[in-house]
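ASSEMBLY PREDICTION REQUEST
Request ID: AP-0331
Submitted by: J.K., bench scientist
Number of chains: three
Total residues: 411
Priority: normal
Notes: Please return the full assembly, not individual chains.
Input sequences:
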Amino acid sequence: MRFHTEYLTFRTPTHRQYVNITPDVEKALHKSGVQEGMILVSAMHITAGVWVNDAEDGLLADIDQWLENLAPFRKDYQHHRTGETNGDSHLKALLVHHQVIVPVTAGKLDFGPWQQVYYAEFDGQRSKRVIIKVMGE
Amino acid sequence: MRFHTEYLTFRTPTHRQYVNITPDVEKALHKSGVQEGMILVSAMHITAGVWVNDAEDGLLADIDQWLENLAPFRKDYQHHRTGETNGDSHLKALLVHHQVIVPVTAGKLDFGPWQQVYYAEFDGQRSKRVIIKVMGE
Amino acid sequence: MRFHTEYLTFRTPTHRQYVNITPDVEKALHKSGVQEGMILVSAMHITAGVWVNDAEDGLLADIDQWLENLAPFRKDYQHHRTGETNGDSHLKALLVHHQVIVPVTAGKLDFGPWQQVYYAEFDGQRSKRVIIKVMGE
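STATUS: Completed
Returned structure:
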């Protein structure tokens, strides 16, 4: 069984940002030489998510507004007693989940027509990491 | 290591629909011959989800109403500038996640007493696919 | 390929409770001898979740309140026609997802600085289980 592990590093210019990392996942797959298996793509921080959805700017704006509505910035989160101000970032990350598994078949991401892997930054402007781990044969 | 990949195709009669696909997952497992490992069950479209929960019609009605409440149909999603009308379907799919991993132990789905795998269609009446990938030994 | 499977059992004293199970996941990894691979940590019940986030009591209180806000206890869920009263527990579990995959690199949980695995009980005071399945080499 083959394993290939890579780490992506982000330092987004804005507090919240959505980055299409599908090309990075594909590159990791090609380096691994895996033909059958899967790829774990997982945020290594607790204020960031990873999802699979459409690469469409209008939708990304909708998602951003929807998340702010369901998990809004507020001053009075109890988490802020630690000195942090990012309680909403944790909640947004929980809501969208922090990881996906991408299936690999015949040496390719086994995706439907519109599926793209996104890194969702909810507390940016600092260094954050994502692990890409390819496993298979 | 063994790999066995199948694709389910759906064309649901209604716009939103919830389909118990546990028997399909079990069939794929038996075909694979895997005794130890896992099964990835993952929607291949960006307006559909996969979850593990109870096979109880009242609960499914509750989930449907709850999702419509948290991620409602609206005309004014920015995504609709593309000509689409399914912005809410994307948000509902993000909320429930689009995939699960089913553990396999001693040749069986290693589930608790009430766990069932569901395909959640949020934009039906068209052809959609799910990948089932069994991996193990 | 190595497989190592363990089951944790919970009977929480309160209806909702959040338990840091990172030490249990680490113990299972060490028993397995796996150096490269992954660990599936998955609730075996449909009213419980598993997430990766911060071990900070203020945040846990925020999450609890947020989940009660988005998926509140209500008497009139249709699921309650079965005699159950835990409709909200199912919705909370769906929202946070019931499982995570922990990457393993060089014999260790390949986590970022603040990541911890939590069991989220939404319908406690009864016996519940989580499966930990280590897979790799």
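REVIEWER COMMENTS: The first strand of chain C starts at residue 2 and ends at 10.
SIGN-OFF: pending second reviewer
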